């Protein structure tokens, strides 16, 4: 049986100190940065995906060991495996994987870990179920849990359901973290790609009070005159 140790060894075999140094800076793992203390082996995502596919049958108990790693890439590879398993699972197994994911959410602790998993596991599972857990996560003091609350709704947006995204974006309007401003603005932009009027209604109500980063992300795909109108606090200029 494949074990977590087999996966870890496969990752260590292709580790690069140079990539690790770059990743340390890119993911802001230095003192007083948002991912302070995160450690890196130095492995590109495509290589992690290959290893995850080869080990996609790993038991949850072994994935748990990967998620406990201090190394970013080992945790991310564990999440890739979890997503692969979820996508091929029947509803009963999907429920088990979702519960496992939520029980280990404290290990989904950098933006790429969130973005690579929340939509595909929590988003799919919660789409036709009670979503109250997302509102609780949006109230969390933990940055990554708040980001999970937003990114989970990406799946809902893909299905044309915007209500939860709009609720959570409104809830997080006064968030202090730039990574939340980016996440909420990104999801609003995705809504705008599908239903521009839904986006502009939100912007007309909130644009003057939105964090600048959130606003810039949200309006990125709008026509230039409309973008400038929102940036200048004028709304859409006819």
Sum up the structure in keywords.
238 residues, 16 helices
Outline of this structure?
This protein is mainly alpha-helical and 238 residues long. The chain has helices at 4-12, 17-26, 45-54, 60-67, 72-88, 91-103, 111-115, 119-126, 132-138, 143-151, 153-158, 163-171, 178-194, 196-206, 212-218, 224-231.
Silhouette: globular
Query: How much helix, percentage-wise, in residues?
Result: 55-70%
Query: Termini separation (Å)?
Result: 65 Å
Average of per-residue pLDDT values: 96
Radius of gyration: 19 Å
Q: Give the H and E element order.
A: HHHHHHHHHHHHHHHH
The major pleated sheet works out as: none
Low-pLDDT runs:
none
Number of H/I helices: 16
Alpha-beta classification: mainly alpha
* Number of separate strands: 0
The proportion of residues in beta strands is under 5%
- Looking at how many chains there are and whether they match, the oligomeric state comes to single chain
Would you give an account of this structure?
This protein is mainly alpha-helical and 238 residues long. It has 16 helices and no strands. Helix 1 packs across helix 4, helix 3 crosses helix 5 (72-88) and helix 13 (178-194) crosses helix 14 (196-206). The longest helix has 17 residues, at 72-88. The radius of gyration is 19 Å and the shape is globular.
């Amino acid at each position: 049986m494949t074990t977590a140790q087999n996966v870890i060894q496969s990752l260590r075999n292709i580790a690069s100190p140079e990539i690790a140094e770059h990743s340390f800076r890119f993911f802001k793992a230095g003192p007083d940065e948002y991912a302070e203390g995160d450690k890196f082996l130095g492995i590109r995502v495509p290589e992690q995906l290959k290893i995850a596919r080869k080990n996609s049958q790993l038991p949850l108990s072994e994935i748990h060991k990967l998620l406990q790693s201090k190394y970013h890439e080992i945790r991310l590879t564990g999440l890739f495996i979890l997503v692969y398993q979820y996508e091929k699972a029947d509803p009963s197994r999907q429920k088990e994987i979702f519960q496992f994911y939520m029980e280990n959410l404290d290990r989904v602790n950098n933006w790429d870990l969130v973005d690579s998993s929340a939509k595909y596991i929590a988003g799919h599972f919660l789409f036709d179920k009670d979503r109250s857990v997302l509102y609780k996560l949006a109230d969390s003091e933990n940055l990554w849990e708040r980001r999970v609350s937003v990114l989970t709704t990406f799946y809902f947006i893909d299905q044309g359901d915007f209500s939860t995204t709009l609720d959570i974006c409104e809830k997080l309007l006064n968030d202090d973290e730039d990574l939340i401003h980016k996440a909420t603005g990104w999801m609003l932009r995705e809504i705008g790609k599908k239903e521009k009027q839904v986006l502009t209604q939100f912007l007309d109500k909130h644009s003057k009070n939105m964090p600048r980063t959130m606003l810039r992300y949200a309006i990125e795909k709008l026509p230039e005159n409309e973008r400038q109108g929102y940036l200048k606090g004028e709304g859409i200029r006819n």
